[in-house]
Amino acid sequence: xxxxxxxxxxxxxxxxxxxxxxxxxxxxxxxxxxxxxxxxxxxxxxxxxxxxxxxxxxxxxxxxxxxxxxxxxxxxxxxxxxxxxxxxxxxxxxxxxxxxxxxxxxxxxxxxxxxxxxxxxxxxxxxxxxxxxxxxxxxxxxxxxxxxxxxxxxxxxxxxxxxxxxxxxxxxxxxxxxxxxxxxxxxxxxxxxxxxxxxxxxxxxxxxxxxxxxxxxxxxxxxxxxxxxxxxxxxxxxxxxxxxxxxxxxxxxxxxxxxxxxxxxxxxxxxxxxxxxxxxxxxxxxxxxxxxxxxxxxxxxxxxxxxxxxxxxxxxxxxxxxxxxxxxxxxxxxxxxxxxxxxxxxxxxxxxxxxxxxxxxxxxxxxxxxxxxxxxxxxxxxxxxxxxxxxxxxxxxxxxxxxxxxxxxxxxxxxxxxxxxxxxxxxxxxxxxxxxxxxxxxxxxxxxxxxxxxxxxxxxxxxxxxxxxxxxxxxxxxxxxxxxxxxxxxxxxxxxxxxxxxxxxxxxxxxxxxxxxxxxxxxxxxxxxxxxxxxxxxxxxxxxxxxxxxxxxxxxxxxxxxxxxxxxxxxxxxxxxxxxxxxxxxxxxxxxxxxxxxxxxxxxxxxxxxxxxxxxxxxxxxxxxxxxxxxxxxxxxxxxxxxxxxxxxxxxxxxxxxxxxxxxxxxxxxxxxxxxxxxxxxxxxxxxxxxxxxxxxxxxxxxxxxxxxxxxxxxxxxxxxxxxxxxxxxx
Length: 731
Prior knowledge:
By secondary structure, the chain is an alpha+beta fold. The chain has a seven-stranded mixed sheet. A seven-stranded parallel sheet has the order 14-17-13-20-21-22-23, sandwiched between helices. Strands 2-29-35-31-32 form a five-stranded antiparallel sheet, with no helix packed on it.
């Protein structure tokens, strides 16, 4: 691999814009008697208005919140434009019934709605019938639908809960409403905390009994949901071999810093010079931080996966510094106390707001031990997605561990519902990391290069790829036990010994370091390119052969090959482009195939990865991602440019922010300019002038390994392409 074979930058001159015509269709809804239908809606509207007038927050909010229903077998999404023409905004769609949505409307527009409703009823031609006819029912949102299904509100149980308000409420109104709710809560709740997070979600945390939840959900229409507060966990490591007394710490390679969100990093003699700062978020009952897990994770982030080699070489090779965001404590009984969802969100938001200009990578080797569900995103995942886009940072999240054998290994174990990733690993814009095996022993449950027995699998909450990447996190022996020989190594709290442990917690910091290397290497690029490079240049990893579902749900795109992500090898070369897509035009990206690919002794393969960062809607989990990019590949032929079928070898889930496909060619093409055509689709609250940032990696590969692809591009197209700008300080 040549040291200066840096990827080629696609110039802006290679970008062609072509306008397209937007088309849409909304099926019509007929009524046998429009007059009677209007009278029924008026009756429902009056009843709704009466119920809302009795709410405790009615005087503080300029909006009304309600449930709208369309006829059976008529999707409310198909009638969205008509319903919103009446002044409503559809906030979220039911996960169980496609005819139901929660909506809001300002009080002024509700008055106009009722006036238009009178016109609909009383005019001969029933003016506005195409807008009113799709509405089957209008009603208040019932309290039971606001309360998490895991909560039994008819029992008198002590709970820690999160109360979230709708994100569309104005800041001025939020202050009055949250104060009113807090005053009400003081009658039956303790330890009340509240905060409006940057993604617009106002959260009130408290301890109360479940019997009170239905009443508060009924009394306040601005309450969107009541959830159980999640408490996050980290495992413990085992101290083993002592470090050599004369171990040498080599000079650090990078001046950059990765934030470690964990249990605290102990400033022992090995790590103290690599900790830029320590930011504590104390639990009220904690007497100190836990330190063991955070120290182990930080050491793997700084030194990588080969720390045990120092036993022979007596050397450690640090890459970067770390920022310690400590959120796990220990109490007087030496028990670990994890942060609540509210505390963890507050801590991460505070740190990102302060450091986002200088710290781009944030490692979260923590999680909630319960599997996620389809179309359900945790409050922490929603915040991480917002911070990722708004502040151009990248979160690396451990997929989570399966702590016990769930059935006969591997089939019953991995097919169990509890083997799916846990929050916040469902975060759409973050990179989630699973674990693969690097070492085996007698009675190992898994083999080298295969998913670790404990590594949680996908899909994500949107049924998309999760985890996206994997790295070494250890192995287990039968029946489900850990031994040092096949575990991962890190540093003990005291810094005098190595420790061993297994888990996705210890795979994630390896990816965090890879990501930081790419940020260092491409200092002018944003997280979209770093994600694209990590997901594109991977070595394939596997699952047990007896498992019939897709490999991608276990090991994602594979394990990153960071050297290929930095520079090309002999038989491949990559084009890079970062751009913005608007909502009115196709964007065609031209790239060039060298003439030598038409020879008989070579075989062309084109591999493309596209990543982007959609805005997300925290109120609408069914349509959480608000933008989508579609891609088409066009080859040059004797008859002109021709679109290529990409049905096979393609990962493309609509609204998921990663696309990847590859295609091999032996004939039927010409060398020269080919095109990748992109189009942006949007939904939800996206404005007309919204521009979507994205990154593209287009790799040309000779599968027969007879051609120096990089050299041929340089020879033929040096006047078109230059090497991407890299940092001179990174090797």
